[in-house]
Design goal:
Elements lengths: L3 H7 L20 E2 L4 E3 L5 E10 L12 H13 L15 E9 L8 E8 L10 E8 L5 E8 L1 E2 L2 E4 L4 E4 L4 E10 L12 E6 L4 H13 L6 E5 L2 E5 H4 L4 H8 L3 E2 L6 E5 L4 E4 L4 E2 L2 E5 L2 E7 L2 E3 L11 E3 L2 E7 L4 E5 L3 E2 H10 L4 H13 L3 E2 L1 E4 L1
Length: about 375
Amino acid sequence: MIDWFRLLNLAAMSLLAIIPIHPNPVYAASAKIKDLVEFSGVRGNDLVGYGLVVGLNGTGDGIRNAPFTEETMANILERLGVNISGEQFRPKNVAAVFVTGTLPPFARAGSQIDVTVSTIGDAKSLLGGTLILTPMNGADGEIYAVAQGSVIAGGASVGGDAASVTQGVPTSGAIPSGARVEREIEFSFQSMSTMRLALRNPDFTTALKIENAINRNSASPIALMIDSGTVEIDLARARAKSPAHLVGRIENIEVEPEQKARVVVDQRSGTIVLGQDVRISKVAVSQGNLTLRVHEAPIVVQPNPFSSDGESIVVPRTGVSLNEDPGTGLAEVSGETSLSELIAGLNALGVSPRDLIDILKSIKAAGALHAEFVVQ
């Protein structure tokens, strides 16, 4: 049986990114309840609007490919008292855009939110542009905010007659605090009699811990676990000044969340991320590489000198070699071995990250890897 700790001291870890696991039991880090759950009713609302970005340096929409840009610009100018009917209007510094943002919970009229601006035509860049007054609508069609301001684009584009280079995404940008809230969403937090806490990662043990932690910090039991993803709070029995006071008190209670044994593998980068509870039953692992090389070296044979009916002939010459790397041989893993010990041992034996991922897949297929296996 291989001594994994001795092998770990003999060789350095490969470039494979892993989270080390201590072989002895360790305790999970504590987290506040507000970092583990979502409070019912406390949510944002998505907003979207259609507008124009002006002031571009010739990188706007082409009128032939985006006629809606010309129509929108003409309508705006007419509302401002500028009549351009019958005129040839071909601006190159205007781009039609969608403006998106999220109205945070309990946002009040006059507060500001961040928005994202993205082109919908064939504009090449939004660098240096300014978004003009754009209403932003919610899912119900009502206007909840109005956006305007200078666009901060995160890319650059340079080109000539025969070539061009683009870095980043210059056709999308952001306006920090670029929208002002005009309408509030009616939500009576004070009138709620019960509140549900929705766990971001549903787990029965974590939900039970949250219930017990809240009840320990209350004069009477007010929390009840409904299922693995829901804990219900009885606001009537809490005897708090208001639901907001109660939420402010319980959201900072610390709980040690439980996590499933899970192995996440990214095949593109060869990265493995694993949890602390991943275990492997007794199993034997054998790994090696087979290399086959074929080399063609044909030879041309000429006829004898002064031969009247001779002709050149190509004689094939093929070299074939078959090599098998010794690999790791047969490695036996004792029962209840942590995955970090197995990976450390295989890395010490020179197993590449790609081969290591294949070994983990085979161990999972054999039923010896006791964890959820996620491949990305």
